[in-house]
Amino acid sequence: MFGQRLKHARRARGLTLADLGAKVGRTPSVLSLIENGKREPRLSLVEQLAAALGIPVAELLKKQPPSRRAQLEIALEQAQRDPSYTALGLPELRVGTRVPTDVLEHLVALASELRAQRAKPAATPEEARAANAALRASNREQDNYIPAIEQAAAEALMRADYGGGALSQGMLLTVVARHGFTVRFAADLPRSVRSLTDLRTNRIYVKQEPVGAHSPRAVILQALGHFLLGHDTPRDFADFLRQRVEASYFAAAVLIPERAAVPFLHAAKEHRDLAVEDLVDVFSVSYEMAAHRVTNLITNHLDVPCHFVKNDASGVIYKAYENDGVVFPADATGAIEGQRMCRQWSGRQVFAAADRYSPHYQYSDTLAGTYFCVAQVDLKAGDTGFAITLGVPFDHSRWFRGRESTIRTRSRCPDGDCCQRAPAALAGRWEGMAWPSARAHSHVLSVLPSGAFPGVDDVDIYEFLDRHADE
Length: 471
Hints:
Structural class: alpha+beta
Oligomer: single chain
Largest sheet: 6 strands, mixed
Order of helices and strands: HHHHHHHHHHHEEEHHHHHEEHEEEEHHH
């Protein structure tokens, strides 16, 4: 974008590369590399170029294309790097000044449609489950701790002069502003998106109310995270999933900063009083985000292996992570999403507890060993609530609040005699005498939504941006 803005400003003043080079002491070939995006100039050269052209430095550094033609040239250059285009085996098309703008419009539109056709569907359900399993394995290898994202979050807070504690609304807006973005709350945000960023104005549009388990603060930071982590249009569903997980990690790392959370967790461990709910109170986040953040930090910093599960009242697993040897139910591909967990696990038992919205502590004897788990139903994770479970091997229970629990269950799953089959006496009374009418699950017959960003309605988001463009 810098190169395009430089080229536009130079041509608008009737200067050749040689003319501008003479003003700043650089050869035309060096300036050509900069204008074509093949070399990044130092700040001192940027200042010299701005002075030579008689414009503010900020004008050259804007992220918006200087003209519709420049926008088309950039779009065509990006299109030629897309796999759908390179697969055609065509030579690179170099766009000179003699190529008419309407020809560029046609080429960009054709490339966009080619990319859209290649993206339909984004993935089959089998490919999506395989991508989930692969990402979970990758997270397990690094103990669910990603130093690069921790560093990006720390730098974002440093630029906003963060002083500690829960991230206030004012501090959040400062973090966003220091990176050149603004936030707009919009009641008419399309239903298919959590947030929508206008790249022409750097506005991040969100709703004022939570989106599922995500507070507006988290949604704003997820949107910012995509840009600070260098994400590009997803190549496939696996890339889309990775970006989504990384953006969520970034948001959590800003809302529960490593610099503040790790000493807090160390102190709690020393007092044998580790508890997810304390992070909820101190950093003003959802229980699910706090539990996620614990899994990011306690293995790397406290040497405590753990597992995390989110499931509904019927035991269906929506997401899970482990590095402590616990065995989740899985299909033949290794995918766990959509599988039903054992009735004896804490994520199922909490729904029958006297107070499901308070921590439910229990020990579970499984075929892989005994685990201490704390589960709680988090209403912020959905209208009907989801159980959020954090578990650790028995030997590490001594660090946690609730370890004195006397609740203990035994799970022999996937042995059918555990909970997959009804007890013989019960089955004897009712087998053949029950005819259930199952809930319709039409979604199991459909492929995943199409597009680079699965499920997003392009028409809706373009109409939205058009409505708000002049605000």
